[in-house]
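2024-03-11 09:14:02 INFO receiving multi-entity request
2024-03-11 09:14:02 INFO entity count = two
2024-03-11 09:14:03 INFO echoing inputs for audit
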Amino acid sequence: MKPEELPELIRETYISLDKSKQKKFLENYKRSLVTTGEAVGTVAAQSIGEPGTQMTLRTFHYAGVVELAVPLGLPRLIEIIDSKRSPKNAIMTIFLEKDHAKDKKYAENLAVELQEKYLKDVSDIMIDVKNRELHIETNDEAAQKIIEKLVGQPAENGVFKIGKDSLSDLKKLKNKIEKKRLSSAKGIRRVLVRKCDGEYVLYAEGSNLKVVLNIDGVDKIKTTTNDIFQIYETLGIEAARNAIIIEAKKVLDDQNLEVDIRHIMLVADQMTVTGEIQAVGRTGISGTKESVLARAAFEETEKHILNAAIYGEVDTLEGVAENIIIGQPIPVGTGTVELTVKPIKSKKDKDEGPKNQDK
Amino acid sequence: MNVRKKIEQIEFGLFSSKMIQKMSAARIYTPNTYDEDGYPIEGGLMDPRLGVIDPGIRCKTCGGRLGECQGHFGHVELTRPVIHVGYAKEVYLLLKATCRVCGTILLSDEGLAEYDPENISVSESSTVWERAQKVSDAGGKCPQCGEEQIKIKFVRPYSYYEGENNLLVTDVRERFEKITDENLKYLGLKVRPEWMIMSSIPVLPITTRPSITLESSDRSEDDLTHKLVDILRINQRLEENINSGAPQLIIEDLWDLLQYHVATYFDNGITGIPPARHRSGRPLKTIAQRLKSKEGRFRKNLSGKRVNFSARTVIGPDPNISINEVVVPELIALELTVPEEVNERNIDSLRKQVLNGPKVHPGAHNVITPIGRKRIMEENKEEIAKTLVNGDMVERHLQDGDIVIFNRQPSLHRLSMMCHRVKVLPHKTLRLNTAVCAPYNADFDGDEMNLHIPQSEEAIAEADILMKVQECIISPRDGEPIIGGRQDHVTGMSLLTRNDRKFTRSETLLITRNIVKLPKGKKTFTGKEIFSLMLPSDLSFSYQGKQGMVNIEKGKLVSGIIDSAGLSGKLLGELFRKYGSDVAREFIDNSTRIGIRAIMTYGFSVGISESDLPQEGLCEIDDSVKKAKMNVNGFIEAYHKGEFKMTPGKSLDETLEDQIMSELGQTRNIAGEIAERYSKGNSAVLMAKSGARGSLLNLTQMAGMVGQQAVRGKRIKRGYNARTLSHYLRGDVSAEANGFVASSFKIGLNPTEYFFHSMGGRESLVDTAIRTARSGYMQRRLINALQDLVVYPDLTVRGDSGVVVQFMYGEDGIDPMKKGYIEQDLN
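2024-03-11 09:21:47 INFO inference complete, emitting structure
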């Protein structure tokens, strides 16, 4: 292997070494390479699955300075692998840009601004049963504007009076107005400001990456969320892949389980090869496999066989599960090696022509 | 040479009614199966043309005997067609996607022109489906013939309504027949849609639904036969009614019943209809049930298979064998065989084994000659031995040195199946070295393990080279050793290397005899010198052990105590990487044995006195408990007075709870420190500190105090209304009312403490039970998703369809198992 062909990380170290050590380094590197045909997928799955039995089932954990519940343990790992669209306890860590990082006021204002606010939080809403009217009293200007738009009439001294014919209509309107969100960051339920290494950091319960990243003064690089799907939607698939790795590693580290990062990387890569996040399971990777037999053997047997019949599917038997089913050697490990014999025409054979050789 | 045929591909398809009739060996028309004499009736479900299930009878179709003839399909011609339940939804979608009169897809020519019917992708055809369905859902007009479409309603499981009118199955079929083949291509369908409607159904060969003869010589039929009888009965009644001109209503009722029976013949688990039941009330197992789920054909018989040449029994420990070995009881060795080809070198020994016959240990069971397989028996063994020639195969008994695969379930990782060398010994258990318990997660409280004997030279070589225990010392999960000395090995070794006690030569021999050789002339040995005897002479290595730095220079242990971090950790890993698996194996074999001898020389025991504390210690703990309770009461008082400070982001109650919890947590830590201080140097501490067994927390709980019990991660809060037990006042948040156990296990828990402890204990029990189930399913999914990923020669990782998942495995191509070779260079 030539130095130019080395993967980036390895090459950097190689170049930084003394000439005398380079040879030894290359030798060591060659020794540590994976073997061709190694069933890395199965090994990765086992390496992550096996410690699962040793993990706690406890969902919450109050980590360090944060008074927010961080989902950890087996349920969180399953959540990551399922790639659920909205995780149970999304948490955002919002960092501030240098100019504001030490400004407590700024951080606190931002926290208030981010927090989800509804009209009912800033106004008094009442139904006047006698006059069939809905009274909304508010001093918040932004809220007034929104209500104005909603009901189509201006406020008088901060009080709206809306008349409706029936009581049920009034109730409907009241519900609608109460649920109207004021701030733009949907999903952020609570924000806490904490001092961390001399900087103010915002921790948010609930997550909305798209909105937060658009706010001036927020450090776009360091700010993160544990909602993998949001990362995918705002930053793309590569970011999502990294998020899966980081989140899974976090869970395993927290339980003091040593699992090599390469195993987790492989799972993350397999979940994201298509360019979208695919869940590990029948709705994702296993359900979209090429082979009918492999799919049928996993889950929803009837569905896959019935569909294979009408769409005339052909199973080319390239995977592991299919070959086990029909009783052939599997194309993994020592099974990847095939022997091809090129028949040499000897004088005797010439008359008979080339013999058919079995693969 | 036997050339194995390879299956290239499997194509899936649907049978038309015509095909069903064509491949049928017999038309089945009568619901009766046997006549009075007990012979199968022709045209009945046990028709002899469908195959044989009784020995001695020849098949009427192919002439084969039982075992030769795999059976033949029959068919039933249905009086009226029915829908195949599996396709009820597809039939509905197709009805919606096509015109009710002309049968074309409800798309204009321009719309269709967007797609190429010859190679249309799955996503394209699904948009065709959607676009076409939109037209009929909206009640639009057919772009081809202009006919107005009526919205079609689907009532599960198999009825269709057009507007208010019930669509009969015959109507549906008529419509489907109008759809052109060209149109089907746009929809991605590879079969004629009318085949989803069945006017005859295949009858499975009797070999697939054999009847069982009970002791009382009664015949008990298979569930599928029962179901087919139902179908035939209704089919006959329907025909009679139609012929006798019964009213339409009755005919439709019977038709529906026929549909029900055919539907449940395929799948007896359809939602919306009651499952067909056996006379005894048990739901019938029909075709879908046979294939489905964990106990179905796919997972039970196809993905996992029963094998020959295997054994299973209880396991036991044997510290005197190598980690590479497994003790196989003679009884098992008499049954299991290994095929061995006869050649000049082994002909004499094999002949001897043949002469021993199948019942004396190094014997043989069969001989395979070019003519065929011959069983060795007492009567013919001499003759067989005489005629044995080179090239014959002898299936001889399992004997010392044979390669076997050893396994313990659950097989969570690849180290659950490793390869051992056989050692045949008396008694009835399989025995393994205690150092290999870790990868198997085995103990000896009744565990059983399996043994598999590879049956070809290729398989033996593969197992020997790739799966041998010594090759599995390093775990692929994290690249650290997983096999190695544990428990008493660690204690013993740590005692031996702890201080500089001198052993005389004869004392040393008691420890090292027949393990390592002693250097000549040396009179006395220290423990460290004894340990050094096992190390290669050029090893220089130092590492952070559990009890300080360990330094090894030129094969001599200079300073430090050898404990679990060395025996099954860093030192072992270093030996493995530097000197290879043979040296590492030898180190494990020797160090465990020397460890055991050392612990026996020193003498080591653990008893109740390990948890004894002197009076001062107990007083100290008492004081700290009192102080903690006082502090807690202080918090509560402050809380009631309203002087308690809230932490931001939490309510007042939560803050109080947090404060109390941390105060009580600290108390246990203090108790732990006290206990540790007063029990310095006792056996329990020694074990905990060397990493042999137990932890300081265990000791704390035994000698000091048990500490706070938790349910759902919080102090115990449940039970009665606002209190845990009726002994306490409502709303009592004090330590003792909420599961704080101030006693130690040694002193004993008081009744309330005992109860709280049981609550915590029960939770963790339930927790483990649920966790195993959940993590098991997670692992199944992970394995299924990743099993096809393989490293290619260019170090890319690719899946089964050739998709590149990683361009360089793990971004650097390094195998986690081998990362130790380069790790120190990278940092």
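2024-03-11 09:21:48 INFO post-check: Residues 119-178 of chain A form one domain.
2024-03-11 09:21:48 INFO post-check: Chain A has a mean pLDDT of 81.
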